[in-house]
Each structure stands twice: as structure tokens, then as C-alpha cells.
Amino acid sequence: MSIVETSTIEEQIELQDLDLEEAGFPLSDIPIQILFALWGGILWILNKLYSLFRWFFDKLQRIYSFFRSPGQNTRILTVRFRAAAEQLLHEMDRLSWIQLIAIIVVFGLFLIAPLASVVTGSFITESGVSLDLIIQLFSNPAYVPQWQPSNFNWIRPTGAGNVEIWGIDLGVILNSVYVAVAVTIISVILGTTFAFIIARYEFPGKGILRTLLLFPMLSTPFIGAIGIKWFLNANGFLNNWADAIFGVFGLEWTRFEFHGLMAIIIVQGFSLFSLVYLNAYSSFMSIDPSLEEQAENLGATGFRLFRSVTLPLAMPGIQAGAILTFILSIEDLGTPIVYAEDLQAQKVLAFQVYDSIVGESGSIDPLGPAIGMILLVFALSGFFAIRKYASLRSYASGSKGGQWNPRTRTLRRKTTILMYLIIIPVLLFALIPQISVVLLSVVQYRSSALFPPLTLENYGILWNQDIQNAILNTLKYAGVATFGIVLLGVSAAYIISRRNIPGRTAIDMLVTSPIALPGIVIATGYFTLFYNTPFFPMGAPAFIITMSYMVRKFPFTVRAAYAGLQQTPIALEEASLNVGASRNKTFSSIVVPLIGVSVLAGALLSFVYCVSEVSTSLLLGGANYNEAPLTYWIRDVNQGLPPIFGAGPAAALGVIMMALQMIVITLTNAVLKTRASAMTGI
Amino acid sequence: MVTITLKNLRKTFGDVIATDDVNMVLEDGKLSTLLGPSGCGKTTLLRLIAGFYVPDRGEIFFDDRNVTDLPPNKRKTGMCFQSYALWPHMTVFDNIAYGLKIKRVQGQRYTKNAIHKRVHDSLELVQMSGLGERTPHQLSGGQQQRVALARALVIEPDVLLLDEPLSNLDAKLRHEMREEILRIQSELGITTVYVTHDQIEALSISDMVAVMDEGYVQQYAPPREIYDSPQTLFVADFIGKCTFLDGEISAIGDKLSVRLPDGQIVKGISPLSGYPFEINEPVRCAVRPEDLHNNATSSEDNLISGIVKQVIFVGSNIEVHFNVGEVSATSLLPPEAKLEPNSLVKLYAPPSQMMVLPMGGVDALRKIPGHPLYASTET
Ligand SMILES: Nc1ncnc2c1ncn2[C@@H]1O[C@H](COP(=O)(O)OP(=O)(O)OP(=O)(O)O)[C@@H](O)[C@H]1O
Ligand SMILES: [Mg+2]
């Protein structure tokens, strides 16, 4: 037998002789390989940029070509329009019309209109339409790129023998961009690694690790920043311990602390990586195992398998998560506020918008909208890119996906231990925001002992009248908003997924875009457009806060409901219609039971995101602090004087919020399982 | 109970023409099959009848009622989906009972007991008694298919629409289910449309067969007629086996004379009555393997000679594969015939069995006056 086989193989080789070459891998190749990899990476990025550019260009060209022969095109358009109108009339029944109109009215009034007012506001001055504001902005030395040598001085020893690590100040616009890029890189590395390990390996303690990794999900950078600022202080917990441990070995530990932009990078990186984690995890899990098995069957294993099959299939998910991280980082207001005493931390776009509104009493600095528009440009480009990748993802998941028979590999004892040695420290770092907030809330004020005395005094803040009022406000706003979100969100999801009407994609875009739109810009729009109108009477922001929650946290419910609907074949509804059930009966007895759980999960998510909403709360709450929500008061408490106010009590409030969020995440995660990416709203 | 009339139906998805120019009358109480290769538009046509699609053009009548714009829940059709479409949140029992709970007979609804009885009867019918309390994902593919069938049958619809209802069953069960469907269908006299790509199944159970290709109904006729006088080359090729010989019309008379490339003249008839053949028009002659005999029955018979390539014993007959020039041909001969590979073979085909068909499928049909497709050449 074997002789026959070898001979045939030899024959084959002989036949294909010309096509074969030595498959060796000499060591000298490695540097060349690395160069190739780098070159490949650069090409890849260029290619992405190019395709994005092409995409915009194509759109432009289509608009342009329309105007080249308007007569004919108008005729074509009229025909199309008539067909579309017919389609619309046929697909929609009365209920759908009511739903559709309600959605358009709400989003038109509370999303489009304010954004439009910000955009127009940045072109209009007292002297009429002009580019004055934009020019003014770019001639302001704080905004244009700066390259002074002193700005590059990022390690600054202090008199007390400590080291302060600062960011590099390149001017407001570049600052925001490079901070966001750095945060995105940190997030992609942390998130993808964790996601791959959890999705592909089986080891004791995996369940715990999975739960722990959900913690960062909902902790807003704002709360995390309060904790981290204390935790990584020169006299903070980490430095104290490092100092003590070094002392044992007779070594000198240099106490360090993060300031300015560097602090923002650290805080946001640790808080936002879970966005990438969840999206990457979903992607890894939804790869059909047979795709990888097929590759293995053809002989690919290990790193080659990962690089050639697994990673490309998971890429759209990772990319979508990364872009979302970028956007959330660039629009995050909470972290700069916590670090605002470092002037450098104020030099980011989000803070500047905030400052332009809060700084002026009553009136808005006209520069606010102009800066807001820059933020908006970043956010919108990011959003379109996400849409592109998220739609790509549906190809990757294709058939069944691996949720019923995941491709996991059990690790050997030795490897497991090695992995723990790496993962545990990384995980501890990743969890610093949570650990530090909890610690800060229970240690005594100003104690720098290794084991600071524990106390519950900080939680005394809960008996404060204003705080109780604020908690009530928050629950009220979030509750009402969530109710509206569920009503409209399920309608929107149903229309998007089931009604074949023209403009469906546009509606989809409209209701999911708030995930990427900076709250601070929306709030600015509310001020410029609605201030002193019935929507937003002077000193009474309750209604507009509720509406802002509703619009901004809408995508979570829509995505969850939509995911539920996508998993429910339309044939199930058709089968019901076919046996004579009406549309309404079908909706109530087939659709609702099938997607109910998803909607519930989405509603819970929307609710907790409302509770932890920062940017619009801070801006709109300022109109009347009696009607302000909890997050507004957390900032107030944090800036107040210890011991009654200050970081400790603020952390205590943060812990309450995190506890609430934790309960909800655990619930939704159990419900959404591998669709966990829905939690990030993509 | 109803006669379904389809007039000039067309349905497109973007640029894809899923089905076009469909004109058929599905008579009351008859079983019609839609037969054709994958992707030819069978499901699309079925869904048009069920009301899940609105045609781009054309009309659908149930008896005299125009139902083109009637929503699916008002059409009283029972459909068995290709993908089963069982509701995962309901048990098998509830799945089947759902339609009964909604159904009203003269404004009255079924009692609980009546529903119970009917569901159990239908479960028995599909040989699934005792599995009523399971949920769909606890069933095998074939079992799910039978539940879908039961769900469609139990409401006793006016029209039964079955989209490959037996594709997932083993041969024995398939046969039994087929008998059950036929029994119920003829007992209740339900107008039934049955989709399949199995030609044996289609020919054996149907009153009428519609052979479809690329969205067009190529022929709609009783099974015998489909086999004996295929109207297009596609039908001749898709149903049964055929040997095809290309040529040109050389004379038109009571029989058609066709000149083959080697100069030989064969005589045949065209199953397409009314088609305006022209001299020198390229055509294709088709002959069934069993119509090629090894001795002549009359002097008119066409002589076909070729080189034997392969002889296969298929039980009652031998199947001879041979080459006529470049063309490969097949014939079914009695087992006595002694033939060796690479030997010369001479076979005879009576002109009445030599079918002469024009090239081009549906386009040819458009040239026949009186045909439903006549002159509807605009697309
Ligand atoms: N919803 C749709 N969108 C776009 N194209 C479609 C859609 N449904 C069907 N088609 C296309 O229309 C054509 C006919 O499809 P149809 O489902 O009717 O085929 P079929 O004859 O039922 O095939 P099969 O035997 O494989 O079930 C195919 O080319 C298919 O790709
Ligand atoms: Mg089909």
C-alpha cells in the first residue's frame, strides 16, 4: 500500500515540478517578513482611506451627474418617485403610518433640528452668513496645531521627587484626535485579545473572567475618572503599595501620576476597551465553525489560520467597535471635567464646547456651535464608517454561527497557568476604574496608609436632600424616556426590518445615529434652538432632558429589537397570515413573544445608559439644579469640599450607579448571549 | 372549491426577473405541480398565489374574484413553506391549533374539543401522534416538515399550496405522505399547487404539470402531453431523456424534413402546432431513447447510424450510448440486441416520434398565434 502511495505522490510532484518551490523558512527571512508585514499594514491603511474617499466621491458624483441633465433626470426621478409612493401606500397600514410619523416627528424635532441649528449657527454671525466663526476658530492659537518644544515635555519631575506624566499639547483639535487614536489603539489591543481568549479557549475560571470583563461596559469614563484620579495619585493606592513593596527589597520607587491629556488617555482606554471587546467577541462567536474547520482541513493551523480566516471574518466587528471607541473618546466630556484643574485637560473639543456654554452666564459663546460642528464632522464620518462595517458583518456571520457548538480548545495545565500569569495583571489594570471607585468610596478621607481605614461615611451623601431629589429626577427621566423608547423603538425596528418601503435605510440611519452623535453638540443645539420656548422654558429643563435621553439612548432598544426580528424568519409571520390571522394578531401572538426578550434587554440597556448619561445632563441640568439629574450632582459633589462633598462621596454615588448597571448588564448579557455587541448599540 | 386564474403575471426583484408572463388556469379541485430546476421561480409563483408578493403586473383570480390586492390572511390558502416556518415558541400542538383558533365557520369558531380532535387527527395523519407536546427544535427535519404539512391541511383551506413538502423525507415516508396528500386533496376537492423538482413525483401525481425555466412557464399541460409532446427544447430535455440532432428545415409538408450537417435528411413532426417554420430555419430534432428501434417498421423510418461507445445493462433493457458524428445519442433496446463498443450501429426512428423543435425556448412560443405568450414580446 504505502509503496503505491509514495510513488503516486512522487509522480504528482514530478508532474507539478515547475509549480513547486522550497517551503523552508530560514531565520534570515524574519526581518524581511517583518518589513513585508509593516508594508502590508501601511498599504492596508492607505487602501481603507482610499476606499472611504472613493465612497464620498461616488456620492458627490451622483449628485453632480443629476444636475448635468436635470430634465431627463427629473423625469426618471418622477417615475421612481411615483413607484416609491405606490410601494409606500401598499406596504403601510394605519398603525404603521402613526408609528412612522411619530418617529419622524420626534427625531426631526429633537435630533435633526438642534444639529441643524448648530451647523447653521457656526456659519451665522450678526453680520449674516460668513465663515467668520470658522476663521476665528482656526486663527485662535489654542486650536491650531502647535509644535513648541515645551509642549513635548511630557515627563515632568516635581520638587517632591515625584514624576508627573503629561500629554503633549498640540492644540485643541489635534489633541482630541490623537487622544482618541491612542485610546482606540489601547482598546483594540485589550479588547481583541480578551475576546479571542474567551471565545476560543476553555479553562477553569472562564465564567468568572467573562463576567468580570463585562464590568467595564457601562462604567462611564466620568465615574471611572473620579476613582482613577485618586488611585493613581502620587500618594494614591497604587504608588503606596509599589513604594512599600520596593521598600522591602531596599529599592527606591519613583512615585508617578498622570496629568492632562495623558490622564484622559489612560482613563478612556480602560473604560472604553469593552466596546471593542464585546463587538469582537460577538464576531468571533458568530463565525461559522465549519469555515475554520474547512481551512484546517486544507492544512491551515495556528497563527496562519487566525490570520487568514478568523481575523478577516471578525474584522468588521472589530472595526465597528474601534470606530465607536474613537467617537466616544472624542466626545467624552466627563473625563476632561474631572481633570479640569490640569489646564491641559481642558484643551479638547468636548470641553471647549461645554465651556463656551457654561462659561457665559445665560448667553452662549458663538464659538460653541463652531467647535461643535467640528465634533459633528468627526462623529458623522465615524458613523458612516461603522454602518459600512456593521453591514459587512452580516456576511461574516452567514449561516449558523458557533453559538451552539462553539470552537473552543481546552488548554493544558501549564499553558493555563501561563495564561493566568499574563491575564490576571492585565485584567487588574483593565478593572482599575471599577476597583478604584469602589475603594475610594469606602476609604477614609486623606488616608495614605497601606490599608486605609474603611468607613461608610461617604455614603452619608445619600441622606442629602438634593441628592435624593436628583436620584428621583434621574429615575423619572430615565423611566419616561425608556417608555417612549420602547414604544417607538419597537415600531422603528419593525418598520426597518419588515416594511419594504422607500427610505427605509434613511430611517435606520436616523434612529441609530445618536449612538455616534456627540451629546454635547445636541445639547448645544437645544440651547440655541429651544431655550426660552415651551420645550425648554427658562429654568425648567425637565422635559428637554427627558427628550434628550430618549433620542440619545434610542439605538440600544432599536438594535436589540432589530436583532430579535432578524433572528425571526419572516416566514413565521407569513405562516400566521396564511392561516388567516390579521396583521395585528400576528404581531401580538407571533412577533411579540419571539422578540419580547430582546426588546426587554434593549429597554434595560437604554434605561441604564439614560441613568449614566453625562454630557447633556451636565449642560441641560445647569439650567436649574433642582431639576438636574444625578450625574450633574456627581460632578457637583466631586468639586465640593471634603469631607461632606468631594471625591469620596462622589465615588459612593458612582458605586450606587455601577451596582444598578451591573445588575442590568448581567441580565441583558444572559438574554443577548453572543449578540452582546447589541449592548454597544452597533 | 376555487379555480385559480393567473393572468400575465410578472414579478421582479430589482434586476432579477423571478417570474414573467405567467398565464395559467388551475382548475377547481385539480392538483397542479410546478416543476423546474432550482431558482426557476416556483416559490415566487406560489407566493404570488398566497399573496405574500404583489405582482409587478398581471392579475390573480380565485373564481371570479380578483384577489391580486387581497392580503394573504383573507385568501383562505393553506401553505406549507419550503423552510417549514414552525413557530419556535409554540409546541407542535399549538402550531397546528393556531389556524383553527382563528378560523371562523359562518361567524362561529371551533370549540376546544373540536380543535383538540382535529389536531390529533392531523397528527395521526402525518404519523406523529404523541409528539404534540414537543417544541419544533426537538424534532428532526422530516418531522418538522410533517408538522408544517399538518398545519396547512388542518384548516381545510380552499387552496393548498405545497412548497416541496416532502423534500426531507425518506423514500418510504415520502411515498406514504404523497398518498395522504392525494387522498385528502381528492376527498376534499381542494385546488392544490404542488412545487417540486422531482419529475417522477410531478408526472405521477399531477392532473396538470407546469414546467418552468428561468421564470417562464414553458409548458402547462397534463403529464402525458408534457412527455409526449414537449413544446420547448427545455421541456424535452428536462423531462425524461432525449437525443438531440441539430439541422435545418429543408422542406415543409405534412411532415417536416430536416437536413442534418452531414447532408442526411430526417423526417419528423413538430409537437408545436401552429408554429410558422421557415425553410433553412435552424431546428433541433429530439427523439426519446425508447423510440429508436433496431429494425425498421416502415419504409418512412429515419435511419440513424453511429459508433457505439458504451452498452449498459439496465435490467429489462440495454441502454446504448453512441455517437452520431459529434453528437452523443442514447437508445433503449431490447436485451437481445448484440452490440459491441466501437462497432457501427443502425437504428430507426419513425417520423411520428421524431420531434422537430425550433431553437430558442419561450421566444419560439411567442410566434404561435393563439398561444398565451403570442406577441407579448415586450419585456
Ligand atoms: N426576495 C428575493 N430577492 C431577490 N431575488 C429573489 C428573491 N426571491 C427569489 N429571488 C430570485 O428569484 C428567482 C426565483 O426564485 P424562487 O425562490 O422562486 O426559486 P425556486 O424555483 O423556488 O427555487 P428552489 O427550487 O431552489 O426553491 C431566483 O433567481 C432567486 O434568486
Ligand atoms: Mg423554492
How would you characterize the overall build of this protein?
The complex is a heterodimer of chains A (682) and B (379). Chain A is mainly α and 682 residues long. Chain A contains 27 helices and 7 strands. Chain A has a single domain, classed as MetI-like fold (Orthogonal Bundle). In chain A, 70% of the residues lie in helices and 2% in strands. Chain A is globular, with a radius of gyration of 28 Å. The N terminus of chain A is likely disordered. Chain B is of the alpha+beta class and 379 residues long. Chain B folds into 2 domains: 225 residues, Rossmann fold, CATH 3.40.50.300; 141 residues, RNA polymerase II/Efflux pump adaptor protein, barrel-sandwich hybrid domain (OB fold (Dihydrolipoamide Acetyltransferase, E2P), Beta Barrel). The two termini of chain B are 34 Å apart. The mean pLDDT of chain B is 88. The chains are: A mainly alpha (682), B alpha+beta (379). At the A-B interface, helix 23 and helix 24 of A face strand 6 and helix 2 of B. Adenosine-5'-triphosphate (ATP) binds next to strand 2 and helix 1 of chain B.
